[in-house]
Amino acid sequence: MNMLLVTELLRWWYTAGWRGRAKRIANQLDATIDYFSMDLLAKTLFAPFRQISAGKVDGPLEVKLRAMLDKLFSRVIGAVIRTILLVVGVVAIAFQVLIGGLILLGWGLVPLLPVVGLILTVKGPAL
């Protein structure tokens, strides 16, 4: 009975348990990608940043020039902020992929730790 319990635990650990862990990591990665909205940031990279009036401006040349410079400045600010967010998002996603890979690797090695501990106990201290 005891051996059956161990084999069932190991069978679950390396099949459904591992798949479940991988699915949780993938869901977290999807949530991070959705949080940063990488595709939307890339599509709107040079869009004006929080500009209230981006419509057509009528008036003298000075007013039109001022409106053009305001729009240009707003686009530059938008591009800088969106680029920073894109870089932060890529770093966060890369970090999450790295940590997720290490977790999956560790998940596969955890059942071996009691065997390693037993071997090190029998072998004794290495001085």
Characterization of this structure:
- The protein is mostly helical and 127 residues long.
- It folds into two domains: 1-36; 37-97.
- Helix content is 80%, strand content 0%.
- The longest helix is centred in the C-terminal third of the chain and has 49 residues, at 61-109.
- The model has no long low-confidence stretch (mean pLDDT 88).
List the defining traits of the structure above:
127 residues; 4 helices; mainly alpha
Can you give me a brief rundown of this structure?
The chain contains four helices and no strands.
What's the domain count?
A: 2
Largest sheet: none
The number of helices is 4
Number of strands: 0
Proportion of strand residues: under 5%
What distance lies between the first and last C-alpha atoms, to the nearest angstrom? 40 Å
pLDDT averaged residue by residue: 88
Order of helices and strands: HHHH
Secondary-structure-based class equals mainly alpha
- Helix % is over 70%
| Oligomeric assembly | single chain
Contiguous low-pLDDT stretches (5 residues minimum) are none
Morphology call: elongated
What is the radius of gyration computed over CA atoms, rounded to a whole number of angstroms? 28 Å
